[in-house]
Specification:
Structural class: alpha+beta
Order of helices and strands: HEEEEEHEEEEEEH
Mean pLDDT: 85
Low-confidence stretches: none
Strand content: 35-45%
Shape: elongated
Distance between the termini: 53 Å
Helix content: 10-25%
Amino acid sequence: MKRKHLERLRRALDEGGLVRVERRLVGGDPTYAYVLGLSDTLLLLYAVHDLHLDGCRVYPLQGIMDAEDLVASVGIGEVPPLDDMDALLRHLRKRAAPCIVEQEPLEGGGDEARFLMGYVTRVGKKPCRVHHLDPLEGWEDEPQSVRVHDVTCVQLESPYVARWLRHGGPCPPLAPGSGAR
């Protein structure tokens, strides 16, 4: 195992951080876990699988080919305004920040689920507008509308969004009167 990977595992052990460990396995998935113990030959992890704590695992260090300290990659450049959803969406529009705006059905309500990935183009008295990138279809011609009070989640600074926006190509300009402001 490379020295830098061993140092990352030691740091995660000391700081209690989450790591991603890749082993030398054909077709093997990475393990996401907390480091509980580390010797010269073995690594003791408490695994996280499908967002659930999934018990302890012990791996020989010689089989580790990569270890990434995920805590170092967690954070946000600038904390956006959290006064209300309107202020958050205005902030994202002003900075042309890519995001996902979600409208999820709530218990007792009949609202449809919406998952709009792209850029907020308008926030105001009318519904919020998001220029949406459909991963299968590409950029939509017109921004999609969602009422601000129906927004249940906004994802920002997401590697998922960055990856899709890279593959979707640059956001095309909107036609005048299409909701960009």
